[in-house]
C-alpha cells in the first residue's frame, strides 16, 4: 500500500527515505521532498487506531473455508414486450 501526500512546504511529491517500527502498532517514517528547490525532510508516525470491522470469529485462520450468506437484492419481475408489425 502506497500512501502519497504532498510536501508540507511546497506541495510537491514526497518519497520515503526510511522507516522503523517503534512498537507493534506504531511506525516512524522519514520522508523527503522530490522538488530540488525544496528538499524538505520530515518524519511522520503511522499508528493503528481502531477496527472498522472485525472477523466473525477471531479464532478463524486466514486459510479457513468461510461461508457467509450475503442477502441478495430483490429482483424485479421480468417484463415481456411484444411488437406489433403492420
From TrEMBL:
Domain Zinc finger Ogr/Delta-type: 7-52
A Pfam cross-reference name: Ogr_Delta
Family matches, as InterPro entries: Znf_Ogr/Delta
Protein name: Ogr/Delta-like zinc finger family protein
Highest taxon of source: Bacteria
Organism encoding this protein: Serratia aquatilis
